[in-house]
Amino acid sequence: MSDDKSTTPTAQLETSGDGNMNELTSLIQGVLQQTQDRFQHMSDQIIRRIDDMTQRIDDLEKNISDLLQSNQVEHPPAANN
């Protein structure tokens, strides 16, 4: 009998196991990359929406301030008698 492990069934399983492990590693890396890409996309969307809401709030505050100022000019407070 020979001590050559490359021809034994166990050695063949180990070799194919390495191939399966490489495939599994590659598959997991692909899934993790897709997940990371999705999270990055969602994060970017959330940041854009927050920026949009911030702009709207700023516009609303300006409009309210303008209305309050125009209301004071048009209707000065009544003098007390």
Automatic annotation (TrEMBL):
Ranges in a coiled coil: 43-70
Residue ranges of the region described as Disordered: 1-22
InterPro entries membership: HS1-bd
Protein biosynthesis in keyword set: no
GO molecular function: transcription corepressor activity
One cellular component (GO) term of this entry: cytosol
Coiled coil as UniProt keyword: yes
Keywords from the UniProt entry: Coiled coil
Highest taxon of the lineage: Eukaryota
Pfam families tied to this protein: HSBP1
Regions of compositional bias (Polar residues) in chain numbering: 7-22
GO biological process: cellular heat acclimation
Membrane-traversing stretches: none
Membership in a protein family: Belongs to the HSBP1 family.
Protein's recorded name: Heat shock factor-binding protein 1
Organism: Caenorhabditis tropicalis
